[in-house]
Amino acid sequence: MLYRKYGKTNEMVSVLGFGCMRLPVIDGNARNIDDDKAIAMLRYGIDNGINYVDTAYPYHGDGMGGPGESEPFVARALKDGYRDKVNIATKLPSWLIRTREDMDRYLNEQLERLETDHIDFYLVHALNAGTWKTVKELGIFEFLDSAVKDGRIRYPGFSFHDELPVFKEIVDAYDWTFCQVQYNYLDEYFQAGIEGLEYAAAKGIGIAVMEPLRGGKLVRDIPDSVQAAFDKADIKRTPAEWALRWVWNNPDVAVTLSGMSTLEQVEENLKIANEAHSGSLSKQELDIVEEARTAFRQTRVSCTGCAYCMPCPAGVNIPGNFTYINEYYFLDNEKQKNALKETYAARISEKGRASQCVECGTCEEHCPQNLPIIEELKHVAEVFA
């Protein structure tokens, strides 16, 4: 495992962090984590050098932002001495904060859920213009200072989902030690983007990257045109290796979080991480990634499949609908497109189809990508009518 300095914290963190958002589950129930498989995966990662475990209050929950099962799972997985081998990162649910007292209440609850007396890296979760205004007015700085002083957290940080000007405002407002941003070869200029990443790094703020594989979109069932670009390389790599190596090529990135769902994914990512030196990709290899990026940008909807929009009050399978519309735009001829329409009709239940959207807007309130979900669902309904 390779390690990098985490900004002004001077901590050395593994370049690969274990994201506990997409753990294996039983019977498709996000709250029913398969402990046998998931604990084996996480401990295997730790045994092979991972020292950064990322979770959050709502992970493996019902999609409504309340308490999920990820934090209690981490507590179970880190028994038998594993807690002492890692840094835990978790997050204050900013959307649930109504008073200054709420901040302490949620932190104390998380310490209990994680069965630990301190959290190493504590983030204010999913900051955007709205949540930033709320927590700032309610005293987030005093809260973080006091939590560091009394030892409940070691390092304060934030995760981010909004535009660059908001990101810079947040960076400049407090003595943050680290931050977490979305960054991959499709999202180099999305949200904080490369400019925000460099802006924070220049101030000594450690950089954690989320969605390096875009929720698996850069790995699973990639278009032939993307694979053709990768096939031009002298060194053959999997799509996951291309995506991860591209992120790790940036020396400002300290830790890259991967939400791994199988032991095979853990093994593959560990192998890649062992060679993840910054600046190691050649110009030819970077050009190949650029070609793959151009091919990928035919995608209609930039959905990562995080399912923050779920459950839909009307029962619409929002991520599922976006998967089909994106696949539709990758197809080359009408015969293939008509076949996909038949598959859509067979696999997406009538209640789950885009045509059932009632335009309540609940999904858009929760989408960290700020996607125009209602308009995109209308388009899906038109295409697959």
From TrEMBL:
It comes from the Bacteria. InterPro entries: 4Fe4S_Fe-S-bd (IPR017896), 4Fe4S_Fe_S_CS (IPR017900), AKR2_Oxidoreductase (IPR053135), Helical_ferredxn (IPR009051), NAD(P)_OxRdtase_dom_sf (IPR036812), NADP_OxRdtase_dom (IPR023210). It comes from Paenibacillus apii. GO terms for molecular function: iron-sulfur cluster binding; metal ion binding. This is Aldo/keto reductase. Transmembrane segments: none annotated. Residues 348-377 form the 4Fe-4S ferredoxin-type domain. Keywords: Iron, Iron-sulfur, Metal-binding. PROSITE patterns: 4FE4S_FER_1 (PS00198), 4FE4S_FER_2 (PS51379). PANTHER family: D-THREO-ALDOSE 1-DEHYDROGENASE, OXIDOREDUCTASE. CDD domains: AKR_Fe-S_oxidoreductase. Gene3D superfamilies: Alpha-helical ferredoxin, NADP-dependent oxidoreductase domain. Pfam families: Aldo_ket_red, Fer4_9.
